[in-house]
Amino acid sequence: MGTKQVSGLSAAEQADLSRADSLAREIFSDVANKWAFLIIETLGDGVLRFSELRQQVGGISHKMLTQNLRMLERNGLVERTVYPTVPPKVEYRLTEPGQGLRATVDTMCAWTHKYITDIESARQAFDS
Amino acid sequence: MGTKQVSGLSAAEQADLSRADSLAREIFSDVANKWAFLIIETLGDGVLRFSELRQQVGGISHKMLTQNLRMLERNGLVERTVYPTVPPKVEYRLTEPGQGLRATVDTMCAWTHKYITDIESARQAFDS
DNA sequence: CAGCATCCCCCAAGATACTG
DNA sequence: CAGTATCTTGGGGGATGCTG
C-alpha cells in the first residue's frame, strides 16, 4: 500500500502501479471511516430502508447517512433500490464487493471483542 | 455491535453489555480512520522513528501523525520508546493487539486489490 | 419517506514557531 | 529530532425547510 518503488518494471508499469496505488489510497480514505464501517456492519446480509438503517446504526445524522450511502453506492459497495411508490421507499443492501468488505469489518469487530479489556486498561494506564 | 437488546439477562448484565458496547463504539471511532490504518500498515512488524514513519506513510502532516500516534498509544496498539539522547530518538512499533488489528488492515488491503477494478468501473458508471 | 439545498457554526487540521 | 503551543482557516457536519 505504501508508495514503495518496485524495480524491474517499465515506466508504464510503474505509472500503472502508482495510479493503482493512488486509487487504492482514495478508496482507503473513502471507506476507512467509522460511519462506513458501522453502516456496512449494520446492513450485514439484510435489506434495510433508509430510516431503519438510520435507527439501527444509531447516532448518525440524516445528512451523514445520506453522504455515506452515496459514497458507498458510488464505490459499488451498496445497491440502492427505489420503489416509485408514494410515499417513496428506498432499500439498501450490500453488493458482493460490499460483502467482501463486510468480512473485514467483521474481523475488526472480533478483534475489538478480543482486546477490549486490554484496550480499556491501556487507556486507564495512559490517562494517569 | 449494534445496540440490540438481549433478553434473559439481569439489569446489571444489560448495563455491562451496553457499557462494553459504547466502549466498542469509542474504539471504532478512534481506530476506524484512514490515518490510523495507514500508520498501522506502514509500521507492520518493523520499528520506525517518527520522521521515517512520517515519510513512509506519506501525505500526513506532523500534527496528524502525532495525534494519531498518541491515540494509538493510548489504546495500547503502538509502543513508544524514547531514547534520552541528544538529539532525541523515538521509536514506534506495534504491540500484540496492534498486530492483531494489522491483520484486519491487511485483509482490507487484500480486499482493495481484489476489487479495485470493480470499484473503478462502479465509480465511472456512477459519475455519469 | 427519502433526498436535496441552504444556512451556519465550530472544530479539525495546516502552518508556524519555540523548547528540550 | 520529537513534541507542544498558538493562531488561523476551510470544510465537516448539524439543523431546518422544501420537493417529489
Automatic annotation (TrEMBL), chains A, B:
Q: Which residues form the HTH hxlR-type domain?
A: 20-120
Q: Which UniProt keywords apply?
A: DNA-binding, Transcription, Transcription regulation
Q: Which SUPFAM superfamilies match?
A: Winged helix' DNA-binding domain
One GO MF term on file is:
DNA binding
May I ask which residue range the UniProt record assigns to the signal sequence? none
Q: Name one Pfam family in it.
A: HxlR
Q: Which Gene3D superfamilies match?
A: Winged helix-like DNA-binding domain superfamily/Winged helix DNA-binding domain (1.10.10.10)
Q: Mind telling me which PANTHER family this protein's record contains? A: TRANSCRIPTIONAL REGULATOR, MARR FAMILY, TRANSCRIPTIONAL REGULATORY PROTEIN
Q: What is this protein called?
A: DNA-binding HxlR family transcriptional regulator
